[in-house]
Amino acid sequence: MSVPNRRLHLNLFILSTGHHEASWRHPNAQPQSATDFDYYRKLAQTAERGKMDSIFIAAKYRLANTIKHRVIPQLEALTLLSALAAATERIGLTGTASTTYNEPYQLARQFASLDHISGGRAGWNIVTSTGDATAQNFSQESHLEHKDRYDKGREFVEVVKRLWHSWSEDALVMDKQSGIYADVNRITGAEFQGKYLSVKGALNLPRSPQTYPVLVQAGSSEDGKQFAAELAEVIFTAQNTMEQAAAFYADVKQRARQLGRSSSQLKIMPGFVPIVGDTEGEAKQKERELNELAVSEYGVKCLSDILQTNLFDCPLDGPLPYDALPSLDEIRGQKARFELMVDLARRESLSIRELIVRTAGGRGHFTYAGTPSQIADVMERWLLSEAADGFNLMPPLLPEGLDDFVDKVVPELQSRGIYRTEYEGRTLREHLGLTKGAETPGRSAQPICETVL
Amino acid sequence: MSVPNRRLHLNLFILSTGHHEASWRHPNAQPQSATDFDYYRKLAQTAERGKMDSIFIAAKYRLANTIKHRVIPQLEALTLLSALAAATERIGLTGTASTTYNEPYQLARQFASLDHISGGRAGWNIVTSTGDATAQNFSQESHLEHKDRYDKGREFVEVVKRLWHSWSEDALVMDKQSGIYADVNRITGAEFQGKYLSVKGALNLPRSPQTYPVLVQAGSSEDGKQFAAELAEVIFTAQNTMEQAAAFYADVKQRARQLGRSSSQLKIMPGFVPIVGDTEGEAKQKERELNELAVSEYGVKCLSDILQTNLFDCPLDGPLPYDALPSLDEIRGQKARFELMVDLARRESLSIRELIVRTAGGRGHFTYAGTPSQIADVMERWLLSEAADGFNLMPPLLPEGLDDFVDKVVPELQSRGIYRTEYEGRTLREHLGLTKGAETPGRSAQPICETVL
User: Fold this and answer.
1) I want to staple B86 with a disulfide (CB 3.0 to 4.6 A). Which of A7, A83, B245, B345 is the partner?
2) CA of B33 to nearest chain A CA: how many angstroms apart?
3) How far apart are the CA of B388 and the nearest CA of chain A, in angstroms?
4) Per-residue model confidence (pLDDT) at position B437
């Protein structure tokens, strides 16, 4: 059997009862499972049975103001992923953590520890966070501006990478005879002094199996794309059509090459909401069933937040109030999501109600309902057209949307030779075909400064 | 069989290859295990077989400057405890986290998550941290003064308790029919505005099984004892003799009563380094064997740090340079440990070398080498004399010191009726006989302020 060059990478984005906003109301949903470890254990084990590269747990640093109508609370990413490390063998464990609201020393410790615990399966989705409500949970009045957030984010990533490199591979001597445990000349402090952060010492954990977690990034604004091209190894992105995805793919890979990076060291994985039916009709029926459970008050609230415009007084069956919308410059927070929503509504002439229903399943991510073979066709086409290196899977209803995918779509992908039938490596970087400890351009993997011991 | 009123509580303090500073050099030690999850898994499972109340993982926020001669690095507490939650069923999971170098919102999330994951087995050892070297890993020039640290610590505990109470028990409605997931009137923001910290919003996790982790504290200075009497549910302490321990016990319980607390809601657990032999001679031999492995350069360095006095120029076989020591007021950091060391050297007229050897096994904690029956005698005497409610066990060599204790001492304690033969409860508070969600005096467990939703 000939093996094509390109193979899909799959990441399972776990979100409580599923990515459809109304999933918790579905007859098969168990909304109380959002804080139940056994529920997450089973999901992770199913994804591992499906030979996926990684699971992914997102994180917010505030309670959503839409909690009245939607289950959002879920377990905290780093603690949950650590527990799941003990319940799985091979699958990657990727979690979100913010560069705006964490201390780099502590975050470096936690990800290094997760990488040790899991034998090299950690991944870090780097976010800069959004919103004053979050800032006010962290002893601050207001959130940093978009550009400042990314500048602080750059400093943060630089510091934690220095910390993760602070023990050279041969720093552990462990010579019982002489009583020398570590060679202190092979351990170096971060010695970082920046505008936002300063960290002097070395990490208090020896180098982890991957040296550092796979760096994931999900910003799709101009600042976000540049940040990702500089340092991300995996990019999550929301793209509505294959054409848009291909343009994004070409843009970001080109930026990476211009920065001296190999474009193969950057995997682009758009979000994908698959709805699997044994017939196309059954899949469409499943999609309708979920959409009918959506609470319109919730949808209007979310869309108002994204567009930073109060839509409660607008007729639901009319168009967006395009003239009243803020300009992109005025948007604080998720600029790319704003653009995607306005663009989608304009292109397809959607009413507010239609836009809400259209995005209820995956918050603007690409959604497709069909048979296993149709879904595999779509994924294969995106892969071969260089619109994606793989997908960030967002089943609308969990666990059944995942079970359907693993039982029905995965064998279809495997039989086409575009997806692994067994794990070949042990670490997440190996699953993704990434070089161990790939470096930011211009920075060496060698100890950076003199010992502080 | 008559059951006495008082029963021992046991906590296993896990520290890499053991609490003896030279344990890693022992022929049976595996120093590479310090970052090996399976090693910790087996230790936790052995402690659970021994029906212990909890395991305990400490945390530092800097690399020890003694790394040349001692294995200190171990996995990070919250990630490791979360992984161990998935590998155990009943034992408590207690970890250190600092009130000086964490953000309360994120720490509250992580402990609430651990409590959910483990079904109510989380414990938090509250520390305020020490030293400028730590501060310099957290974008600060120097460490807060002793009193300021405790003041910030009080604010921190107040904030996280508000966050842990932000969801009332009946806030989760989950009514699929009406589409109401949560009753937003039963979720309250922290609305805390202090000198050091301000946190406005509600936690984004529903109330955990224990509402909040068991609060543990280990300060033994005046500030530390007062802090503990105010809010701790468990106190770890270093005491050299039963008489000193009894005086400490009476002092802290009295302080708690004066603050309106029930003294039964505060469990005092001195550190205890047991060395188990089938004969007394074998136990003493084990102790000598470990002490002979100690590196004197390491011991002098540690003692110099504790006394904040350079001892490298002093004759090892002479006394401490008492006149050159700083006064207690001048000590920044661990005041109680300073007092304990000076007091021990004076009382027993120890040379510097003797003091180093005497404290090599447990850094000043009570150490006893004997047969299982002799060790049980000591523990029973401390318990019945109200010198302790239990012990924080610090085996000098792991895993074998733990195996010995569980296989030989635990049955002895059980046959005397002073230790459980089976877990009766599910949560750590149940193991410890603590009321669920005991409150700081003067603070109500009810939602504290108006909803911010």
Assistant:
1) A83
2) 11
3) 33
4) 56
Contacts of B65 in chain A (CB under 8 A): 453
Interface of B with A in 65-94 (CB under 8 A): 65, 67-76, 78-80, 82-87
pLDDT digits (tens, 9 = 90+) for A91-119: 999 999 999 999 999 999 999 999 999 99
The predicted complex's ipTM stands at: 0.92
Question: Which residues 155-174 of chain B have a CB within 8 Å of chain A?
Answer: 166, 172, 174
Q: Does A60 touch chain B (CB under 8 A)?
A: yes
CB distance from B421 to chain A under 8 Å? no
**A205: nearest CB among B27, B35, B183:** B35
Residues 119-148 of chain A with CB under 8 A from chain B are 133, 136-139
* Res. B381: pLDDT tops 60: yes
Contact A68 B182 (CB under 8 A): yes
Distances in Å between the Cα of A48 and the Cα atoms of A36, B338, B361 are 19, 52, 44
Q: What is the pLDDT of residue B447?
A: 37
Mean pLDDT, chain A, rounded, equals 91
Residue A103 at interface with chain B, using a CB cutoff of 8 Å: yes
- Reported as type and span, the H/E element at residue B56 is strand B54-57
Q: What value does the mean pLDDT take over residues A210-231?
A: 90
* Closest chain A C-alpha to B82 CA, distance in angstroms: 5
Mean pLDDT of A248-264: 95
**How many C-beta atoms lie closer than 10 Å to residue B26's C-beta?**
21
For residue range B385-398, what is the model confidence (pLDDT) as tens digits?
A: 999 999 999 999 99
pLDDT > 90 fraction of chain B, expressed in percent and rounded: 74
Nearest in space to B433 (alpha carbons), one of B4, B3, B9, B125 = B9
Tell me whether B58 touches chain A (CB under 8 Å). Answer: no
Over residues B409-416, the mean pLDDT reads: 98
Helix (H) or strand (E) holding B248: helix B242-258
Cα A237 to Cα A214: distance, rounded to the nearest angstrom: 16
The answer to whether the CB atoms of B80 and A79 lie below 8 A apart is no
Which of the listed ranges A26-35, A68-77, B296-305 does the model predict with the highest average pLDDT? A26-35
Q: In this predicted model, what pLDDT tens digit does every residue of B201-241 receive, in sequence order?
A: 999 999 999 999 999 999 778 888 888 999 999 999 999 89
Q: Please give the single-letter amino acid code of residue A208.
A: S
Whether A22 has its CB under 8 Å from any CB of chain B: the answer is yes
Residue B245 CB contacts under 8 Å (≥ 6 apart), including other chains: B237, B239, B270, B366, B382, B387, B388
Interface of A with B in 196-235 (CB under 8 A): 196-206, 208
Nearest residue, CB atoms, A181 vs list B71, B139, B166: B71
| Per-residue pLDDT at A452 exceeds 60 | no
Among A288-297, B170-179, B263-272, the range scoring the smallest mean pLDDT is A288-297
Q: What is the pLDDT of residues B11-50, one digit of tens each?
A: 999 999 999 999 999 999 999 999 999 999 999 999 999 9
Partner residue opposite B86 with nearest CB, options A26, A32, A86: A86
